[in-house]
Predict the structure.
Amino acid sequence: MNVPDMQATRSTRSRIGVAAILLVAAVSLCSSLWAPLRHQLALSFTRRSESYTELYFTGRPTTTETDGGRLRANVGFAVSNHQGETTSYDYVVTFLDDGRFLGRSVGTVTAAEDETRKIQAAVFPSGGGAAHRWDAVDVEVTSGADLHITYRRTTQ
């Protein structure tokens, strides 16, 4: 190999080395300064637990009248257990009207691993016609998992 070829090879190697160092420095700087990138990298390289619980509505909340003429607010929701073991879930269902409390139903449901339990909760709101005025339903699981969902009714 002649001298000009050796110099070209050294020059190319040094450019590649400098580029690699700059690339590593840039990635390090970005990952240390930019939290979302750091978080995404951590998710990519960390083994995560597969256990979780699902909470969702099974239909729209409704209002019905009982045989005695009393109004009842109803809501259906489901809890799906993927915790790796049988789990009991305490829940609270609250009907609200413009942030004001109308009524509440509490209960417990136990679900085996990979089981989905459907719950129908009924609330008899205080004050006769209050059942027709609800605008939000909150369902909160308070043990076994920490979950919360809200159904908001919009008026036309």
Summary: The first strand starts at residue 52 and ends at 57. Helices lie at 3-33, 35-45, 130-133. The chain has two domains: 3-45, 52-152.
